[in-house]
Amino acid sequence: MKILIIGASGMLARPVIQQLEKDGFQTRLFSRSVNPSMFINDHEIVRGDLFNPADLNAAMEGCDAVHISISKLDERKATEAIVEAAKAKNIRLISMVSGATVSEENRWFKFIDDKFLAEQAIINSGIPYMIFRPTWFFESLDLMVRNGKATLLGEQPNPYHWVAADDFARMISTAYSKKEARNRVFYIYGPEQATMMDLMVRYCRAFHPGIKKVSVAPLPMLKWIAILTGNRELKSAVALFSYFRKVKEPAIGPETNALLGKPAINFDTWIELKQ
């Protein structure tokens, strides 16, 4: 099977690409900014804009499946464009990286609503699909360290089953190898549950020992700063972290781990692997 990876330059795409190729799949990488220096091995790369039908059609030519791993785009419109191109190119399987809290009841938040509608576009396409709903990733902790300081956006009291990107990649590759994984939604949770503050403290202790304290920036203050400065990125971040203060990780059943294998990397192991 040859799989087109859309959003190949993203943090979550790279380990998936490496795992798929390790397991014998062929891949083609599609992104506006992907380049060979991001990877150890040589890869077939197509640069383009997924909102340009000609670029998307050219990228899908000769592929059997499409894996969508995008961010910072209009996910609903992007996914609808991908689905239309996939139908024209007789793509046999579509997979998508979504989120653990995506559900009908959480559609009041636009970020989630876009993901929900993107999922529906795939589910209703008539093409076999696999949707992956991961929780928070260990790798995202580094995004909260800037200029020698570690800062959480607001109090984040809810615990999550944090997962390693390498476990996530292995589970996606396993899903691609099993026919019984078709037309399913998979929740990807790690083996341990922890709050964001707990992991940030441990993360800084391991990788940023000079940082002695993890600060908490009040969300109302950040919201006003975003409004006064016109900082759209900060505004989006405040909205996202405000959402996660309200919405907890949903409880899930054993189906995903039974079919794809349990995530094995806890936080201490992840630190050892990264050091």
List its salient traits:
10 helices, three-stranded mixed sheet, Rossmann fold, 275 residues
What does this 3D model show about the protein?
- The model has no long low-confidence stretch (mean pLDDT 93).
- This protein has a seven-stranded parallel β-sheet, with helices on both faces. It has a three-stranded mixed β-sheet with strand order 7-8-10.
- The chain has helices spanning 13-22, 53-60, 75-88, 110-123, 165-176, 196-207, 219-229, 232-246, 255-260, 267-274, and strands at 2-6, 26-31, 44-47, 65-68, 93-97, 129-134, 145-146, 149-153, 184-188, 214-217.
- The protein is globular.
- It is α/β, with parallel strands linked by helices and 275 residues long.
- It has a domain at 2-134: NAD(P)-binding Rossmann-like Domain (Rossmann fold, 3-Layer(aba) Sandwich).
Quick structural gist:
The protein has a domain at 2-134: 3-Layer(aba) Sandwich (Rossmann fold).
Using the 3D structure, state the CATH architecture of the domain at 2-134: 3-Layer(aba) Sandwich
Strand order of the largest sheet: 3-2-1-4-5-6-9
Looking at the chains present, what oligomeric state does this protein adopt?
single chain
The total of helices stands at 10
**Poorly predicted residue ranges:** none
What is the approximate shape? globular
* CATH homologous superfamily classification of the domain at 2-134: NAD(P)-binding Rossmann-like Domain
Gap from first CA to last CA: 34 Å
Order of helices and strands: EHEEHEHEHEEEHEHEHHHH
The secondary structure category is: alpha/beta
Mean pLDDT: 93
Please provide the count of β strands.
10
Per CATH, the class of the domain at 2-134 reads: Alpha Beta
Radius of gyration: 19 Å
Estimated helix fraction: 40-55%
Largest sheet descriptor: 7 strands, parallel
CATH topology of the domain at 2-134: Rossmann fold
